Amino acid sequence: MTKLKFLPLCFAFIGLISCKTSQLKNLPAPETGMFKVSILYPAGEGKTFDMDYYEKSHMPMMAGFLGKNLKFYEIDKGISGRTSKDPAPFVAIGYFYCYDTAEYNKAVQQNITAILADIKKYTNIQPTIQISEIRQLSLNNPK
Amino acid sequence: MTKLKFLPLCFAFIGLISCKTSQLKNLPAPETGMFKVSILYPAGEGKTFDMDYYEKSHMPMMAGFLGKNLKFYEIDKGISGRTSKDPAPFVAIGYFYCYDTAEYNKAVQQNITAILADIKKYTNIQPTIQISEIRQLSLNNPK
Q1: ipTM of the predicted structure?
Q2: Are A81 and B130 an interchain contact pair (Cβ–Cβ within 8 Å)?
Q3: Cβ neighbours of A36 in B, within 8 Å
Q4: How far is residue B76's CA from residue B87's CA, in Å, rounded to a whole number?
Q5: Which chain B residue has the Cα nearest residue A79?
Q6: Strand, helix or coil at B22?
């Protein structure tokens, strides 16, 4: 009977251990070996980009199309080039972190009409697209 | 005296709660509002890139120069363009996830001679450099 008193404590520690070990899987965090689709929008004269629409409408729509294969997506806004005096080469970059690139391509093809129509709503820029493998993630000096 | 029995349980739950809330800070995971320096190496005829040296030597050296301002770095290897038939626009991309871009630039300037000499050891490609703000990270369908 005495041992039953330790059950809540055991559960709490099991919870703590599984929390620590499951962290990466349940967070918008990359994992080595995953694939990343990068959609890069080059800056230039006469180029327009509606970040608000991209964040609130286009990317959530894409996430819906991509489904379970998409772990998370990220949106970067270009600030500058190498130094603050240099213009940013890309206005914005969107990233889809996926488990399977063939599944990614299949989902895009299935929804290609809607996707192409939607792109016109926020930009006149033809994006550069890259599929990469995440080779390495290295934590430096944790705070 | 009875209440003392609950102390280990309290500590375990406090540990669990703080584990959950501190996850992003102690992982190689991006956080919105952070800055990201992207070093993109465009592919092309006659371009060479030694990924092994880049991973094992150059990036760890850069991490040493950047210090506490660098949360983590990431290395992507280009696999393809939009479809598997298209060549990857970039051979490799390195990312530094930093808290402060002015500090990043200062550290690079202080070590610029060593950095430029080291780049020649792994590539003949002139990289494109972008500083971006991470606007959004959205977890999709966690597993």
Answers
A1: 0.78
A2: yes
A3: 76
A4: 15
A5: B132
A6: helix
